[in-house]
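Bug #77: duplicate submission created two jobs. Keeping one. Sequence:
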Amino acid sequence: PHNDPEAAAGVTFSFDDPEDAKKFGKATGVNVLIETGRHVYTNWLSLLSMRTAHPKLDPYAWAQRKVEIRADACPRTLEILARTCNVKLLPHVPTPAYRIAIDCGLHSGKLTHSGACQKLMEGVGFTRRRAEADVNWYTSAPTVPMSYLLGRIELEKLHARLVVRDGWSLRKFNDWILSFGAIPWSWIWQAELF
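Kept job's structure:
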């Protein structure tokens, strides 16, 4: 069951066996959660190494106790992620492009809230409630969709330079990208932290 079917952005299926999830995950628009690398704590080197952007923003120091974070700290979480698939409802629709255009339109005054919702409903196929939720996100967190795109462009440039041109392995590249937390990669590059 879904708590809000009209505003659903995706569907998640949990299998009893991780092998069944892998088979299902080969379909277009389907991802096995553990394989996406997104929001899986074992891929966050900054978390595992307890590295923070700044000493004053160090939650491990605030804990006033020894904090140990290991890749095997949450085995049940990893087991669930390995047998769970996310299905995108509209895998072929360029939703990010619509989001960026709408974000810019809203903040330049060329689109109203209602007009932005209408564009998402017509162009992406969102229901009214799903479109309103998206537009409310843009208005409460301006430029977030654009930031995602700019981050992707920056990441693709670094990948072309380090992996394609310089021969880094994908693992080395991913470890490097994830090892600095939320600091912009261009800053890390300029500081020659590679």
